[in-house]
């Protein structure tokens, strides 16, 4: 079955790490003094009018039908103009309406046929109003739902065949190592353990891959060793068989049939597949024409879609046998809602399409090598006269709500964001809008929608069959709102402000969390991404902003603005730069420039804020009028269109609207034609309106979100292209660059970094985002920030996860203080962190076991050496840490030190010197220990100190420092598993009794040296990067209280 589009598992929003919003560079202080209203500037020269007119035409298109899920006896779907869901029987074509059934996201559904039943059931989870251990079984013939609770300690992860996949643990989004298959009716058989996963593997948040399942099993995703993998789950035995050849990459399309498992990546003209009974086999390839793309698999035949030039009815559907047989056209056109097919558990596939009058939902099956089809549900082609009852403009997309003979439909049309509007083809949202949508006024057909859902579409209110009110946000997010009726006051991608009808209460809704985060009295309010603006009711003329109004800091002002007028606004509207306020009919209105900290007055009346202007409907004159203030002050108001006042007291977003993100204005004339006007105002420069990601990455984390930085940078307006670069702050090297084309939104800029298997250095990085917009050729910097990589690739002499070197200071009694490195180049004493036997010798060895944490070699008084493994939250291991034996008889060595990597395998190696003066190399290996020592030098006994330094000259190989009896300092340059001829660095080092190759303490990309003199003063020599050091600087005194420094 398939296809399904998947990459590594994702966690639900919001992320459970700290979020640091990035403000635009032009944003000023978070408090502003009162600024008097500025006088109007001289009239601006109006730009030449540029307009398109979209005629009110009859719609001659097939009835829209949206598939939900398919069984073996029927399928669940939605149909344009009908409320609720329909269950249609394959054999008879009869349809039953399931009134009251709500399957909107995050509810996921499947069709299951329990072993003890002759009929199918629609299985859904989570069950509305219940916990993660509940699911529901809906009778497709009656809509009756039976809720079932799983045994204690498990949560639903999905459905396969007649079973529920349940993972141990109460958090459905957390990785879990164990799972069971539970009979969907429960009690008939004992839970079946899921086995076959590699040792230590964990099921991901989205264990079952949507749409890739049948009555025998399903594809699942798991993580192992920080990476993601797929496996085939046998629903009968519970055994998971890994599929090692399948990559876990973004946008991968997956298909499962009774005989094979296949995958394909968009942009590639080759499908890969393996036999289902041998998923570890070498994949076989099937190449299809580059002009087509796979829709689904039916048996051993690929169904592909290819362009149908000159037609708006959809792509052509063609059958291509995997054995290379002759291609066969199955349908002239395929409905867009069925563009990926709807697969049933028995291997059949539902696709809607036809040539014209024969348009229908069809069931495709394969028998004797041939694909056949049966008409299940004819879909009429209609000619419909429409009336516009609602209007919105969002980032160049015109949303028109049309009343089509009593049924509401949402039409979307791209009108562009450039200077001149363009009329591109219209698309129809397949499911339409429910007839129970809340109207804008009693006795009127009008529907006031709001812009901004992150998944496209619009926000609107509707009531269900029980009278409950819901906020629908785009195609999938539906949130219950208390009370009845109401209107949407303002909306963004993150929050929606709803003024309830009864009771008169204002609700702040977060659609992505399906939650009403706050209730309060109705008041002036506006939202711009994650910022909520409110008008103070106790301090007239005071406007208050707060960030993330559902967070722990909710209610805490992030900025306060004074309008300079002693009235309480009844209305607010906001963009990145402008804040519009109005105190009501006959009272003052104004705009505040958030970037420059000044306010000015504008004409009073029902208005909508644009990008550097405001449009007012002068109902007396019957005109739309525009005030341009993009330069920072208002020009004289000018008329842009004739629009007579209608019967509605407020016709905004009904008969006219403004695109504050993209720069156009639209209105409806008396013949239901939609006019889209260029505003004639220069577009503002894009800024980062919201940074929805954290500023820390833990690349070794098993939490997918914690292990990657996805960017999630939301732009204030559309752009032509963008480029995001990430630079290491120390090396100044560019470690990643991501590029993208036109971005209209509301999708964010961002790509997962680091990629799979890439472990960047611990430390700080700078990201920078540049864009091109409005046809410009030069990139514009719109924002930058700092990103921290924690527990990444371990750097020289770093004991914790921050990328800055640290120091362990051991007293004569073995008590050890940890000194953590500071970004300023100093050290901070964290106090006592470990106590070792007084006779122990401590040797830093980097990350010997390759787990990302610093390890420590410890030799005891008998000559035994153990490796103590580092762990998170420590600055250096302690004796209680897990450890492993390295060897015995090491008392023959009087020097043990790690110069870093001498073998170019990424591991730090060990060098020792014996009492005869011979130098030995111990290469680190994959067994978390060392190979047998290899002699690499002799005659080294004359050095009174030898210390590993890491790479001193930038060649990527570790080096060694040695001091001779004359006090001269020598560098032994690392080479291929040896040291090259020594190089004298300096002299006069006789007075020092401790040396430490501290790594890059100065944070300039060059390894440094620490040394303590006999008086106890600690000094730093900054590395030059060419093998030497600069002048000496003092760190501090009093270090003679320590026996050794490591």
UniProtKB/TrEMBL annotation:
Gene3D superfamilies the UniProt entry points to: Integrin alpha, N-terminal (2.130.10.130)
Extent of the signal sequence: 1-46
A UniProt-annotated Pfam family: FG-GAP_3
Keyword list, A-Z: Signal
Entry superkingdom: Bacteria
InterPro entries: FG-GAP, Integrin_alpha_N
Name used for this protein in its record: VCBS repeat-containing protein
Organism: Planotetraspora mira
Taxonomic lineage of the native organism: Bacteria, Bacillati, Actinomycetota, Actinomycetes, Streptosporangiales
């Amino acid at each position: 079955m398939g296809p399904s589009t998947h990459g590594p598992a994702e966690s639900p929003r919001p992320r459970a790490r700290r979020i640091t919003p990035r403000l635009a560079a032009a944003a000023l202080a978070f408090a502003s003094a009162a600024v008097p209203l500025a006088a109007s500037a001289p009239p601006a020269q109006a730009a030449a009018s540029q307009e398109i007119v979209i005629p009110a035409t009859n719609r001659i298109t097939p009835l829209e039908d949206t598939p939900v899920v398919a069984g073996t006896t029927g399928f669940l779907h939605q149909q344009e103009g009908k409320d609720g869901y329909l269950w249609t029987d394959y054999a008879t074509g009869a349809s039953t309406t399931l009134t009251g059934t709500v399957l909107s996201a995050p509810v996921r559904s499947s069709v299951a046929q329990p072993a003890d039943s002759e009929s199918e059931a629609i299985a859904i989870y989570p069950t509305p109003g219940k916990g993660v251990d509940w699911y529901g079984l809906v009778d497709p013939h009656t809509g009756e739902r039976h809720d079932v609770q799983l045994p204690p300690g498990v949560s639903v992860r999905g459905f396969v065949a007649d079973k529920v996949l349940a993972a141990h643990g109460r958090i459905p989004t957390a990785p879990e190592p164990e799972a069971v298959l539970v009979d969907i009716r429960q009690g008939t058989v004992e839970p079946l353990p899921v086995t076959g996963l590699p040792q230590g593997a964990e099921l991901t948040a989205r264990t079952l891959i949507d749409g890739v399942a049948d009555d025998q099993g399903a594809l699942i995703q798991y993580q192992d060793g920080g990476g993601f993998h797929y496996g085939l789950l046998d629903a009968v035995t519970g055994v998971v068989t890994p599929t090692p050849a399948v990559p876990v990459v973004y946008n991968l399309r997956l298909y499962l049939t009774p005989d094979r498992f296949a995958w394909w990546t968009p942009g590639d003209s080759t499908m890969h597949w393996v036999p289902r009974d041998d998923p570890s086999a070498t994949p076989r390839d099937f190449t299809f024409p580059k002009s087509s793309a796979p829709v689904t698999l039916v048996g051993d035949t690929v169904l592909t879609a290819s362009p149908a030039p000159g037609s708006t009815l959809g792509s052509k559907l063609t059958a291509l046998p995997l054995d290379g047989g002759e291609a066969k056209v199955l349908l002239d056109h395929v409905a867009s809602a069925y563009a990926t097919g709807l697969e049933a558990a028995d291997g059949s596939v539902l696709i809607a399409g036809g040539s014209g009058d024969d348009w229908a939902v069809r069931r495709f099956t394969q028998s004797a090598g041939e694909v056949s089809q049966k008409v299940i549900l004819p879909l009429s082609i209609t000619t419909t006269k429409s009336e516009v009852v609602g209007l919105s403009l969002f980032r160049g997309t015109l949303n028109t709500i049309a009343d089509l003979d009593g049924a509401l439909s949402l039409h979307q049309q791209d009108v562009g964001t450039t200077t001149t509007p363009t009329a591109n083809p219209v698309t129809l949202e397949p499911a339409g809008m429910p007839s129970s949508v809340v109207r804008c006024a009693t006795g009127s057909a009008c529907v006031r929608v709001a812009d901004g859902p992150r998944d496209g579409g619009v926000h609107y209110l509707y009531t269900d069959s029980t009278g409950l009110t819901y906020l629908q946000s785009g195609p999938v997010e539906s949130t219950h709102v208390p009370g009845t009726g109401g209107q949407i006051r303002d909306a963004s991608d993150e929050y929606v402000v709803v003024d309830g009808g009864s009771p008169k209460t204002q609700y702040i809704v977060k659609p992505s969390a399906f939650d009403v985060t706050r209730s309060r009295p109705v008041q002036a309010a506006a939202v711009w991404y994650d910022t909520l603006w409110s008008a103070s009711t106790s301090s007239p003329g005071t406007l208050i902003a707060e960030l993330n109004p559902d967070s722990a800091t909710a209610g805490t002002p992030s900025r306060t603005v004074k309008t300079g007028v002693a009235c309480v606004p009844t209305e607010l509207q906001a963009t990145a730069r402008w804040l519009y306020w109005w105190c009501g009919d006959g009272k003052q209105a104004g705009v505040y420039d958030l970037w420059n900290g000044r306010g000015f007055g504008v004409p009073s009346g029902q208005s909508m804020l644009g990008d550097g202007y405001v449009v007012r409907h002068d109902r007396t004159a019957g005109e739309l009028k525009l005030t341009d203030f993009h330069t920072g002050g208002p020009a004289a108001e000018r008329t842009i269109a004739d629009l007579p006042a209608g019967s509605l007291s407020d016709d905004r977003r009904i008969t006219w609207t403004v695109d504050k993100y993209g720069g156009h204005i639209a209105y409806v004339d008396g013949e239901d034609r939609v006019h889209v006007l260029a505003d004639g105002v220069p577009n503002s420069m894009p800024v980062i309106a919201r940074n929805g990601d954290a500023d820390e990455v833990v690349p070794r984390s098993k939490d997918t979100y914690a292990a990657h930085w996805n960017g999630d940078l939301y732009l204030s307006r559309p752009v032509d292209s963008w480029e995001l670069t990430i630079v290491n702050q120390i090396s100044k090297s560019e470690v990643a660059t991501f590029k993208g084309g036109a971005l209209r939104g509301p999708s964010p800029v961002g790509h997962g970094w680091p990629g799979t298997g890439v472990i960047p250095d611990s430390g700080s990085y700078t990201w920078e985002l540049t864009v091109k917009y409005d046809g410009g050729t030069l990139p514009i910097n719109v924002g930058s920030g700092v990103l921290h990589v924690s527990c990444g690739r371990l750097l020289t002499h770093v004991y914790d996860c921050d990328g800055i070197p640290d120091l362990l200071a051991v007293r004569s009694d073995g008590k050890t203080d940890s000194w953590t490195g500071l970004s300023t180049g100093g050290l901070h004493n964290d106090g006592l962190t470990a106590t070792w036997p007084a006779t122990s010798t401590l040797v830093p060895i980097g990350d010997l076991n390759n787990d990302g944490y610093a390890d420590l070699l410890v030799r005891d008084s008998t000559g035994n050496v153990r490796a103590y493994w580092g762990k998170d939250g420590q600055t250096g291991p302690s004796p209680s840490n897990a450890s492993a034996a390295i060897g015995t008889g090491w008392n023959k060595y009087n020097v043990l030190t790690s110069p870093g990597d001498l073998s170019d395998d990424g591991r730090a190696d060990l060098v020792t010197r014996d009492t005869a003066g011979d130098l030995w190399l111990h290469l680190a290996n994959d067994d978390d220990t060392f190979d047998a020592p290899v002699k690499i030098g002799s005659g080294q006994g004359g050095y009174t100190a030898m210390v590993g330094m890491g790479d001193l000259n930038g060649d990527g190989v570790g080096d060694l420092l040695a001091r001779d009896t004359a006090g001269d300092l020598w560098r032994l340059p690392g080479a291929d598993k040896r040291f090259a001829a020594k190089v004298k660095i300096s002299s006069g080092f006789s007075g020092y009794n401790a040396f430490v190759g501290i790594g890059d303490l100065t944070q300039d990309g060059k390894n440094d040296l620490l040394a303590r003199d006999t008086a106890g003063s600690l000094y730093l020599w900054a590395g030059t990067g060419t093998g030497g050091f600069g002048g000496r600087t003092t760190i501090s005194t009093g270090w003679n209280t320590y026996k050794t420094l490591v």
